[in-house]
TrEMBL record:
Organism from which the protein derives: Abyssalbus ytuae
Enzyme Commission no: 2.6.1.16
Protein name in the entry: Glutamine--fructose-6-phosphate aminotransferase [isomerizing]
Reactions the enzyme catalyzes: D-fructose 6-phosphate + L-glutamine = D-glucosamine 6-phosphate + L-glutamate
Residues at the catalytic site: K364 (for fru-6p isomerization activity)
Protein localization: Cytoplasm
Domain SIS, chain residue ranges per copy: 43-185, 218-359
First-to-last residue of the parent protein present: 247 to 615 of 615
Amino acid sequence: EQIEKGGYEHFMLKEIYEQPNAIKDTYRGRLQSRDNFVKMSGIEDNLRKFTNANRIIIVACGTSWHAGLVAEYIFETIATVPVEVEYASEFRYRNPIINSQDVVIAISQSGETADTLAAIKLAKEKGAFVFGVCNVVGSSIARETHAGAYTHAGPEIGVASTKAFTTQITVLTLLALKLGKANGTLSNSEFNKYLLELESIPEKVEKTLLTDEHVKYIASIFKDAANFLYLGRGYNFPVALEGALKLKEISYIHAEGYPAAEMKHGPIALIDEQMPVVVIATKKGHYEKIISNIQEIKSRKGKIIAVVTQGDTQVKKLADHTIEVPETIEPLTPLLTTIPLQLLSYHIAVMRGCNVDQPRNLAKSVTVE
Ligand code: G6P
């Protein structure tokens, strides 16, 4: 096992650090920036299904559901297709109104999650075209779907999902680009801009990983907190949910993720000097609004840990701690902002003596209801 961990103390940390390569493996052979082309064998024959679709419905559970939420923003921006994101467990027990004009995308790291598998079967019965985004090759979901694309992240052993999340977002971005180009939403130059920026992400993730020591220091300050709040807007709202989920899963600290603007409708009542609030406040996307949210937290004495864009000065003046990530285009920010949140939960869990790779009561793959 020590050998498998490749010198890291835990699988989770190894998998966090594998992300630059995992993302590269995901787009390798698919992203062809020189030819201004995206090639995905799972979609070439079925592109019509996507371009003719009335809407896309994404079904997933857990972290994969969060990747689905990020994809919703990506598809709407890049491909201008209406998207709905559903918990597979809810979808399967409703009477979802879907038909052959709908495309269902099922996202699953393991490809074995019982609820997601059942949601796929239901969507197929109703005549929808079902596309899978799985990591495990040959898994049940990969076999049950009409077509799909693998994430190629390599085995993920840590129960808390990390590299599966960022590679799912990568695959879904490629899919949205393919679609945006096919339906004429994206010009050739916009398309190329996305491809080049996506190609630069592994290096930017590498740079983001350099925040590790600083994040560890922040973890040492807040490791005994009883609660955490995570806030983000737009593309970073699902990142806030994912950050909170990571902390809950492995450190057993209660954490809530919220869209920053919704704070005033409830969570603001929780804020006092005991409450650490992680705010994702990168420059692109609602920056000024996030700053006013930060001011609201500060005036109630909450402790602010902000994830900011490199070189930021405004948030730095207000926050107790800041963690810098490189600049990128807005749809790709989750690929960077999620990294320090993974590290924060990891270090807090280690400092609290928790079993990081196998947290209590959780399973890597939930094959029963
Ligand atoms: C379990 C795992 C999570 C995962 C979720 C969905 O709860 O502990 O890490 O996000 O299942 O799994 P899937 O394999 O379908 O992505």
